[in-house]
Each structure stands twice: as structure tokens, then as C-alpha cells.
Amino acid sequence: MEQGRQKLTPSVLGVLAAVFLLVALGLLVTLYSLFRKAQRSAGELARINSTLEAEMAERSRAEQERDRFFEMSADLLSITGFDGRVLQVNPAWEKALGYSPAELRGRPLAELAHPDDRDGTLREAQKLRLGGVTIDFESRCLARDGTYRWLSWRSTPNMERSLVYSVARDVDDRKKVEQMKNEFIAVVSHELRTPMTSIRGSLGLLAGGVAGELPAKADTLVAIAVKNSERLVRLINDILDIEKLESGKMGFRFAPIELMPLIEQAVATNGFYAEQYAVRFRITAPARGSRVWADADRILQVLTNYLSNAAKFSPRGGTVAVAVIRSEGRITVSVADQGRGIPSEFRHRIFEKFAQADASSTRQKGGTGLGLSISKAIVERHGGKVWFETEEGVGTVFFFELLEWGSG
Fold first, then answer.
1. Domain total for the chain?
2. Would the pTM count as exceeding 0.70?
3. Residue 342 three-state SS
């Protein structure tokens, strides 16, 4: 037995030594690998920490700049949640309305809206929650002393953070001046309409020969007077319509009406007017059976304005095309002329009051600069919209769109 042990011992010891060496080397390799991984992890962690610190510093700097902007701005700045409650306002609120930032924080802004403006304010808030933006929305806001001031709002939502950023500008003085101007114009127009109507009627009788045949010079002067008196009466009537629309006093008698007979009536009625300019109207795309919920007289007023404008600004011998398109529960009416188009610098003002691209030529053609503004207001009161497409040297197409009655 001792001999066997002597024979086995050297080989066993060699094997064991080799095994132990391999195990030790493996452990060393593993420990080194773990050490390198730990080094890399520590470096990555340091880089992440550095990035986070830089981002936090940048955010802190941005917040400080925002706070400085809030402090310095003369406009009324606010940040509200989608629930409408104030999160932050700037000191300009206290100067304009008397509320300190602390008094407004956590308060729903809609509570400050004038009762007559509250529904519109809530509609704007809903639009913002759905991702829309508010541009030049005007409403009255309750001041701390119990009075109301007009503010003009611009707002945009942050959908990710459920926040609304708003800029409001105090336009109370401008609104008061506008109100005084409108009241003055309305009073003057009312006082002028009766005598001007009488003057126009008398001149018309003279021109018609009721007082006998006039001398050639007198006949020319009376014709000029008739033309100018008619223009003045149109201007007075347009001003009164604008005043009624803006004050909400214009009456509308809504009913389901067939649109095509109304368009045919407008084309026939204004055909005599178009003949003055050697222009003819043509219905190119009728849509029989089109019905809308509307005031027939007011829609006729819009059609008359579109058609008369198209006739005035078409070349002699030209054709004004009228089309009606039904699509997806909406009816679109278009009136296309073959005129010289609308200059690019004037296009953004086309539906404004007293807007005239070329005042001299418009006066020669008898325009007041109010027709398109009135048309826009009438169509919007019907829940529709107006727009135009134009190309200089080719012509202009004016559109208005209404919901088809019974489509919903």
C-alpha cells in the first residue's frame, strides 16, 4: 500500500497543482473583467450624472429667464392648467386688473369673464384642450374694483404637460373709442337716411321727366346727382347693417330653404346691373335639392354682394360663373370673375370694413368697402365661412359655405 502511494503521489500532486493554477488564473481573469466593468460603469454613471447636471442647470437657467420675462413684460402673461386654474401670472395683472399673483393662483380664469363672454371663453378653452390655438380672442375680464376691462388673448397649449400659455393685452381704451365711433356713425347714419332717401327720390323723379324735359346741362347734372345720392344711400344702409351686426341687433328669420331658387333669383335680379358693365352671369354647376337652415333675405344679400362685385371688376364681355357644390353635408357656393385679381398686399384685408384695393377705381364703380365685411358677418352668423382664391391677371373666386339642412 505504501508502494502504491509512492507511485501515485507525484502525478496526483502535479494534476492538483495544474488544476489549482487554472482555477486561480480563471478567478484572476474574472476579477479583472469585473474590475474593468466596474470602471466602465463608474465612467458611464459619471457621464450620466454630468449630463443630468447640465440639463438641470439649463432648465434652471431657462426657468430663471422665463421668470425674468414674466416680471418685465407689460402684457398679461399666464400659465394655466387644462382645468383652467391659474398656475402662474406676472405682475402686469395687478397693474391692469388689480389682482396680485397670489390672489389669482389656483383660481379658474373663466370666473373673471363677463357673463355675456363666458360661453365664448369656455369654447376657446375647449379648443385649446383639443390642441387648437387662440388668436386675438377678445373678452371682458372682471377687475378687482368690480369693473370690466377688454382683453385681447393669444394662447397656445402644451399637450404633453397639459398646460396653456397665454398672452393678454389690455385693449379697453381702444374698445371704448371704437364704441364711441360706432355709436356716432350709427346716429349720423340714422339721421341721414331719411333725408337722403327723400333727396334720391326727388332727383329720380326729375331725371324721369316728371317736371318736364330738362335742358341738356341740367339733365347731366341731375344724372350725376342721382348716381351719387344712390351711392350715399347704399353707404348709409351698409353702415347701419354693420352696426346692427356688431351690436347683435340685426334680426334673422331662420328657416329651411331651397338654395338653388334663391341663387337663380339673385342672378336674375342682378342681371340688369351686370348689363351696365356688359357682363353676364351663368350658373355652371347647379345642385338641385340643396337645402340650408338660413335667413333667405340675408343669404340673398350675400349673393347680391358677390355678384355685383364680380360684375364690377370683370372685363367688358366677360362671364361671371356661379357654382354650387354639395359635399359631406356642406354646400359651397362660388362666384368667379375674370377680372385682374386681388393684389397680394391687399389680400389679408379683403374682408375688413372699408377695405378697398384701389380706392379710386372702386369709387368710380360705386363701392362702399363694406359689402364683403357684411357678407362675412352674415355667413358666420349662419355657422358658415367665407374665403376667396385669386390670381392676378386671371380672376378671383369668392366662396361661402353653409351646412346642408338635415345632413346631421
1. 4
2. no
3. coil
